[in-house]
Structures are given as C-alpha cells and as structure tokens.
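Please, structure for the following, as tokens.
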Amino acid sequence: MEELIGTQKPVRRILDPDEAIAALERAVPGLVALRRPKPAVFDWRAVEEGAGRALPSDFKSLAEWYPAFGLDDFLVVMLPWPGEEIGQAEAEGSGSKRWDSDYPAELRPLELVSTS
C-alpha cells in the first residue's frame, strides 16, 4: 500500500456536485439507468449527527439521485435510504468510526479523515 500513496491523487478535484455526478455518469456505463426520476429527500441533519461529521455535498447529491450501488466486485457505494436515516444510524452505530476507511488519510477527502 505504501507505494500507492501519492499515485492516486486526482489531477483535478471536481467541487461542484452536479458536475461530479455528470462525470461519474460518463465514466460508469449503465449508471444512469439507476438514477431516480427525481431527487430523494433526506434528513441530512440526522444522517450527519449519526455519522458524527458533516458530509460532502457531492456525497449528498449522489445519495439524493441514486440508491446504493456496486461496481462489479470492486466497489460498493453505500448510501442512506430516504426516510430511514435515524434507523440506519442506530443500526450501524453512531459516530465517525463507521465512516473511516482502511485507506491512508492521504487518499481520502479531508472532510472524511477522522480527527480522533
């Protein structure tokens, strides 16, 4: 893993949530077929309280437009389910620990790096 640090940094980080989703849809064939007809409504305050941190706007936008999905056997994108935000937080455990990653902090967006 050490040899990967610094090699997977994006050339350009897309900060606009709509632009980020459009880029993802161009990169992942068939993803658009999963897109909701209209954005889901979430209680983001409850989700963020359960997560123990503020979540990035691109993550929120992705969750509003898409259900959880997987990319082959490579990656599963877990997203909250509309209307079940509090129940999910209770079932998964609250606090930031469940949002942490096995990947080094250098490869994660700053807002998802645990401060504890």
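The chain has four helices and two strands. The CA atoms of residues 60 and 71 lie 19 Å apart.
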